[in-house]
Amino acid sequence: MLSFAARRTWTGQVVMYVLLAVFAAFFALPIIWLVFEAIGVHLAPIAHNLGLWLFNSTLYSAAGAAIALATGIPAGYAIATHEFPGRRVLLILTMLVMLIPTSALVLPLFLEANEVHQLTSPFALIVPYGLYPFGVYLSYLYFHTERFHVLLQTARTDGCNEWQVFRHIALPLAKPVAALIVFLNIVASWTNFFLPWVMYWSTDTTNRYPLPLGIALQLFGGETSGEYLGVVQLHTTSPPSAIAFLLLATLAPVVVVLVLARRWIGSGQFQSVFR
Amino acid sequence: MKARSPARPRKSGCLFVLPYVVLLGAIGIYPAGYVVYMALTSLSAHFTGLSNFIDATHNAEFVPAFENIIKFLGIWLTTLVVFVVGLSLMLHSLHGRVGAAFRFVLYLPAALAGSASVMLWLFMLQPGKSPWGFVLSWLGYHSLGDSLAPAHLPVIFALIAFWSGAGSWIVVMHGALATIPDEVLESARLDGAGAWRTAVHIKLPLIKKWIAYMVIGAFAAGSQLFAEPQLISEATGGLANQAWSPNQLAIFLAFHYDYFNYAAAISVDLLVVAVICAAVILLRTGLFDVGH
To answer: Which residue has the higher pLDDT, A272 or A144?
Structure first.
C-alpha cells in the first residue's frame, strides 16, 4: 500500500499530465487539422498569388530585419559602452517605445504616410518594421557587461580606434544577440496584419500584399451565406484545402527561422533568459 | 556585472546611435506628435482644444466599443494569468527535453498570429468542418452564426488571442523561472516541500514581477484589438460590428467618413493608455535596467 503522501504525489502527477495533454491538444490540434486539410490540395488556382504574397512577405520582413540590425546593434553597443549627451534619455525612451504595443502607432503612421504620399509604397511597411527598440535594448544588455568593457579597454590600449573596436571586436561577438533580434523582429513583421491593412487595403493593390492580407482576402471575396444569424456559414474565395495550404506556407518559414536562430543564439545565460 | 569604464569617447558614441535616433524620430516620435496635433485641431488646422475628444465620445459607437474591449480584456487577462502561470509552473517541473518539446508546441501558434489565426479559428468554429465539431454540437451550435453570436464575441476573441499569444508568454515565464537558483529549489526539497508547495510558495512569489509585467503588457496590447473583430466582421457580412473595438472605430471614422481628427482623438486615447502601461512596467516592476 502506498503511503498517504506518496499517493497524493501520484494523483498530483496524473492530474498534471492530463491537464498538459488537454492543453497540448488545444494548441496543436488546429495545426494538425491544417496538415490533413491541405493534403491533396489543387494549387493551380492560388499558386500565382501564393508565390507573390510569399515573396512580398519575405521582402518586407527581411528588409525590416536588416534595418533593425543595422540601426539596433550599433545603438545598443554605444549606449552600453560610450558616454554621450542624452544617453540615459535615449535608453529610457527606447524602453518606453519598446513597451508600447506597435499597434498603438498604426493610425499615427497611416496619417504620416498619407501626408508624405507613401501610402501604397513598400517603404510604408519596411521602414516601420525596421524601428525595433527592443533590439536596441537587447544589444545594450548584451554589451553592458564587465567582461566586455575590459575587452574594449584592452583593444583601445592596443591602439584600435573606435571604428576598429566596433568592427573587429564587438561585431564578431554580436552573433547571438543579432540572431535573437532577427528572429523576434521577423516573427513580429511576418504576422503583422494591422499595419499592412491600413496601408494597402483600401487601395486594392493586391500584388503588393504580404501573406496576412492575402489570407484576409480569402474572406473578403466570398459572400457569406445566410439571411439571418442562425444560418450564417463560412464561405471563402478559395476552397478550404487551398486556405489550409496558405496557412501552412505562413507557418513554415517561421519554424525554419526559429530553428536557425536557436542554433545561432547558442547556449548560455543569455539564452536561458530570453528564449 | 555592470561596468563603467573610465574613458568613454563621446563623438563616436553619437555616430553609432545616429541612424537609430533618426529612425526613432521619424517612425516613433514624429507620428505620435502628429496624431496629438491632429487630435487638437480641426480639418482646417485650427486649434480646437479638447473638442475632438469630446465630440468623439458622442459617436453612438464610442461607448459600446469601450464596453466591448473591457469585456474582452477581463476574460483575456483572467485566462492568461490562470493558464499561463499554471502551465509554466507545470512545465518547469518536467525534465528539460519534455518541457522544451511542450513549449515548442505551445509557441508554434505564434507564427500564425493575426489574420492567419482568425482564418483558422473560423474553420474551428464552423460546425461540420471543425475537429471540435462534437463540442460545438454539444453546445447546440449548428452554424457559424451560432458560434459567433454577438454575445460570444468577447470569449471568441479571447480564445483566439490566447491560442496565438499564450506560448510567447510561457516562454517569458520559462525565462523567469530559469533564473531561480537551484540551491533554493534544493533546500525546499530537503525541507520536505512537494511539487505543489514548491510551485505555490517558492516559485510563484519569485516570478510575481513577471506576472505583473504580463498583465500590464497584455492589457496594453489587448486594448488595441483590431484583426480579430475586423476579420470576423468581414467573414460574417457585418454580423460582428465594424466598429466593435476602439481601434476599429478610429479606422472606421477615418476610412469611411474622412473624420481624421476624431480618429486621431480616439487614437490618442489609446496611445495614452499604452504609454501609461509602459511607464508603469518601467518604473514599478523593476524588471528593466534603466541605466545609472
So the answer is: A144
Which residues of chain A neighbour B28 with C-beta distances below 8 Å?
97, 105, 131, 133
Nearest to B247 by CA among B224, B216, B273, B275: B224
State whether A78 and B19 contact (CB < 8 Å): no
For the purposes of burial, counting CB atoms within 10 Å of the CB of B151, is it exposed (0-12), middle (13-18) or buried (19 or more)? exposed
pTM of the entire predicted model: 0.90
Tell me the CATH number of domain B62-284, given options 1.10.3720.10, 3.50.50.60, 3.40.30.120, 1.10.150.170: 1.10.3720.10
Nearest to B289 by CA among A30, A218, A141: A141
CB proximity list for A66: less than 8 A, separation 6 or greater: A130
Q: What residues does A233 pair with on adjacent strands?
A: A225
In the predicted model, what is the mean pLDDT of residues A250-260?
Answer: 90
Q: Which residues of B touch A27 (CB under 8 A)?
A: 105-106, 108-109, 163, 166-167
Query: Does the structure show a pLDDT above 80 at B2?
Result: no
The residue among B152, B124, B179, B131 whose CA lies nearest residue B244 is: B152
- The pLDDT tens digits of the residues spanning B104-129 come to 899 999 999 889 999 999 999 988 88
Residue A239 CA to residue B129 CA, distance in Å, equals 12
Q: How confident is the model at residue B285, as a pLDDT? A: 84
For residue A268, pLDDT over 60 is answered with no
Please give, rounded to a whole number of angstroms, the shortest distance from the CA of A84 to a CA of chain B.
5
Of the pLDDT bands very low, low, confident and very high (cuts 50, 70, 90), residue B6 is very low
CB within 8 Å: B119 and A247? yes
Which of A54, A84, A223 has the highest number of chain B CBs within 10 A, making it the mutation to test binding with B? A84
Structural domains in chain A, sorted by start: 46-274 (1.10.3720.10)
Average pLDDT over residues B159-168: 94
The helix (run of H) or strand (run of E) holding residue A13 is helix A4-38
The C-alpha of A90 sits at a distance from chain B's nearest C-alpha, in angstroms, of 8
Beta-bridge partners for A225:
A233
pLDDT cut 70: percent of chain B above it: 95
Q: Shortest CB distance from A9 goes to which of B112, B194, B236?
A: B194
- From chain A, the residues in CB contact with B115 under 8 A are 193, 212-213, 215-216
Measured CA to CA, the distance from residue B248 to residue B235 in angstroms comes to: 15
